[in-house]
Protein: Xaa-Pro aminopeptidase
Organism: Brasilonema sennae CENA114
Amino acid sequence: MILKTSSSLIETLRDRRQRLANLIDFPAILWSGTTSPRNFPANVFPFRANSHFLYFTGLPLRNAAIRLSAGKLELFMDDPQPDSALWHGEMPDREEIAQIIGADVAKPMAELELWTEEAATIAVQDAATWTQQSQLLNRWVLPLKSPQDIDLELAKAIISLRLIHDDGALAELRKAAAVTVEAHKAGMAATTHAQIEAQVRAAMEQVIIANNMTTSYNSIVTVHGEVLHNEQYHHSLQPGDLILADVGAETETGWAGDVTRTWPVGGKFSSTQRDIYDIVLAAHDACIAKVSPGVEYQDLHLLACTVIAEGLVNLGILQGNPQDLVEINAHALFFPHGIGHLLGLDVHDMEDLGDLAGYEEGRTRSNHFGLSYLRLNRPLRPGMLVTIEPGFYQVPAILNHANVRSQYQDVVNWEHLSQFADVRGIRIEDDVLVTQESRDVLTAALPTQASQIEDLVCR
Ligand code: GLY
Ligand code: MN
Ligand code: MN
């Protein structure tokens, strides 16, 4: 943990809580959360502090809470137990932590119960903490329940701050992006010497760990890219395979990167792989070129759908007019997910609040197959960071479904499609900041062109 006083951190945190105070006129209490045990209490899963807490403290403290009221920051946490230094080393005490984060007051945890009146909160994921939240606030505070009343007001206020990244956040997000890019380059360079997926994953995560970061989600490194959130790494790598790697770094204070590249295990795309790769890249490039303030994110999604449908018509896989094909969801047979999501302290930023952050007030998710997985539906504003991640997948559960076969009998040239069997899954994902005039691709240092990718694999 970074434990030095920095005037810029203190300034950033002061500015965030002042802006919160301009939006709400009641106190907010935010908990950091605690560790979860594996099979016995002393052996715990890696700790990750709650993101709303991190936003206002900048430090991944455990078993702590803060009370934000009219721009003031009060820290509640206990000093380390006397025997803690033996097992965990010397830790700063409450007063030292308070100084680092610029807290106005620091008190033991037991005193928090005196300060809960009229306070709003946001549920933390771990059961020990949400039970404590519920007991102290004398109402159910549950992670899967939509917030109500002042909790809802607090959630909306925090969303409005976290949607638009300040300079402190952007400095961290750029660090996460830079390490994520290096991890992908290392993965490509390691592939021709690797026998199984796990070895490529290890090369990528090695870079992240060596930079004293963690992964911002469970890495996807697989020759079965059609399994969207594949968490298996045992498959052997064969020369004709594509490897899809969706891997992101997270900085020590919790800010995330999220990047996907797809490359040929043998160093050269086959002609069928290259044809499909170039369609996905065309969708990726067309969407990124349109990222600007005022643009509706859903329109970017629909643009990607149309570019993919057009490309598949040109290849002879789909038949018909691309717009009409998008209307009947034919593109979604191959591109079933959304074009991306918000990125920040969480890889799907603020998804602990359901769609409250992702969807503009008054909008709800469509139940249309091609739109139901769209995680973001807002007009873009300067300071938002979003991913752009189109893909093409051949998912047997979709393509072999009897209803799909009959519904799209005349739309898909099934026989021609069978020639593309060496393309299981391709995704290309970058992290794109909306700027005052246009955009800044934070992960642009990682090439996307097929020939550049081949060079990186064969380096
Ligand atoms: N890494 C998960 C995602 O791209 O949404
Ligand atoms: Mn993503
Ligand atoms: Mn991703």
Q: What stands out?
A: The CA atoms of residues 79 and 93 lie 5 Å apart. The chain has two domains: 7-162, 167-458. The domain at 167-458 is CATH 3.90.230.10 (Creatine Amidinohydrolase). The mean pLDDT is 96.
